[in-house]
Predict the structure.
Amino acid sequence: MRRILLAACFLALAPAATAQSADPPVEPDGLTVDPPAPEAVQPAAGPTSIQISPDQPVAGVPAMLTLDQPAELVVITYRPNSAIPQTDTLNTRGSPFTPVTFRQAGVVRVAVPGGPSANVSVRFDRTPLAGVGVLLFAGLVLFGGAGFAMAKLLEGGTKLNRQPVKRHPDL
Amino acid sequence: MTSLRAGLAVWGGGRSFPPSSAPLTHLLLAVTDGHPQVHPDPTPGSPPPARGAWQSKLGFILAASGSAIGLGNIVFFASNAYQYGGGAFYLPYFIALFVIGIPVMILEFSLGTMTGRSFPVALRRLVGPRGEFVGWWSLSSALFITMYYMTILGWALCMLVGAATTLFDGGTTAPFAPFAEPSVGPSAIAFFFDILASWWPLLAVAAIWAMNMLILWRGTATIEKAVRVFVPLMWLFMIVLIVRGLTLEGGTDGVLYLFTPNLDGILDVNVWQGAFAQMFFSLSLGLGTMTAYASYLPRDADQVNNSMLVSFLNCGFEYLAGIAIFALLFAFSLNPVGGTLSLSFFVIPQGIAEFPIGVKLFGVAFFFLLVIAGLTSSLVEGMASALIDKLEISRAKALACVLVPGIIGSLACALPFVVDPGLDGNGTVGLNLLDILDHWAFRYSLLTVGLLECILLGWVFGAERLREAANRHSKFRLGSWFDVLIKFVIPFVLGFVLLWNLWEDLTGGLYGAEWPLGPVAWFPFGVPLIWFLGTIAAAAYLTYGRRTAGGPPAGALPAPPVAPPAPAP
């Protein structure tokens, strides 16, 4: 339960998280860039918020991802925190505005590595027949079964039999 | 003579004999365990029997389904389905329902009606003192679970009051580092931790215990009255939440998301372990309550049909709860993963806070649903009923025997002293105690009891004899497959899940050992030790230290049936 409580704390706090990297920037060839002189140090620029438009994008239809500061990569996780998450990486090429097409419907987490993250609900592009099938099947089994058993129960009326009943031979 | 005395005592609870003017047809006798037990005709005004008897079939079904449906049903299924592939989770879930859920329910119900006694005494009648020991161990452990369950209900009561007042206002703080600054908007998590660090939950816990005692005060009579109101209300509130969820933008997509199968994880052993364990917990098996409830039924009750009905109602409620929660959480892009506490107290209220209208109304309705779902679980009844059977004490005394240790434990789980302001652990003394106790008692005891009862009844008493007893009064005949399930399949599955849990604990380190608990750093090893030794000692004392009142000597099968004596003139 502890891990879950902490996860919930994270959930509550995550939108307010900020990207602050203590590591020096790294060039694409892997060489470390010397930090600038102390008088020239600026706060590390990084996105502090993620916005997706529309609020509930549709799977397979492009949406717009907006960062308040540019970032190189955005990680998209389908079914986050589940046993079967799937992750895609999106290269934003340093642009604060990036079109993104979600390939699956569901709850999706969009995160800048080491920075902010946001959940988004991606809607289905068309009604999933498998989902409707399971919905109906499960409902039929559970409520059909309950209805059938209830009918059997009430066949002889609602009163309980209080007549003496022969003992079971085991007792 | 002893039988006659016992029979008459059962009639009047040792207080008075039936009025001589009572018509003979009202004095309907059923012989139970060699003791004549008088079941008066349940007409208004007649004195209630000491053990109790359900007034109607519907009363029993409402009580048993109300007991099965608890806090866990509202959030467990949705959480597990999300984690393990949505609709794909229904495959292991249904297999678990038919392979474990319904058969063990039949077993526990049949135990009650065959003997007319509560869990440990019934097990003693069928398999001797070993069975009784298992029964008392189960109930002792259930008492530990009841302690923190009542605390959770106390928190739910506090949140209910909060929902009607300031829960959904902004500017909430709590005496923990992550919540030091006032929240910008409503923050259910900050509100919850603020409640947790106050003394209010102790008052709420006392109120919850008082409500529970009121429901159980006259046994079946008051339980039945309560469930006739509360259980339909639970269903009604759930339907209201569904309607609200489905009318939110994206709500229907949330429902389809819940049911659309993702087969990626279907071969993961965790999926199957999760489904089987959840089914056992969800149906409240291994707690003794189902056997106690069934013992208030006449001997010819159809326990196969009753088991199916209660199981389907329980799982149907979970199905509806899944729809409501997924619609709600999807609409607000909230992650539906978590345990009972986080989903019930932070995530769902946070979703409700986003409602355009009726925030307080739905907040109150949701927490009221939690409270009544918990109250109708009646976890105390299993132990109270067993004490009445074993010691032949009055219901008031039996309830007091449960109330005193129970309320002390519940209050301990609500203690607000902050031991971890950084929330690297769980924050307060009470929450840490609850968390560690839950980990051991809930994770191990119910499954262990299920495993042992299947072994004892399947192998020692004989699954075929049990099946024959169930078939005598059932419209659906159980085949020999039932014996195979009880003797082989269920013990194997439960044994596997238990070993899996144990393996995780052994390889993952002692649960809670790494938390910064300050003065209560002994909790991670002390609490499981107290739970284990306490339950073993209580079970040993009640099994071997106290003779079963009015019953046969330990280990002996009951005496042959005797002719029921005529009621006293």
Summary: The first strand of chain A starts at residue 50 and ends at 53.
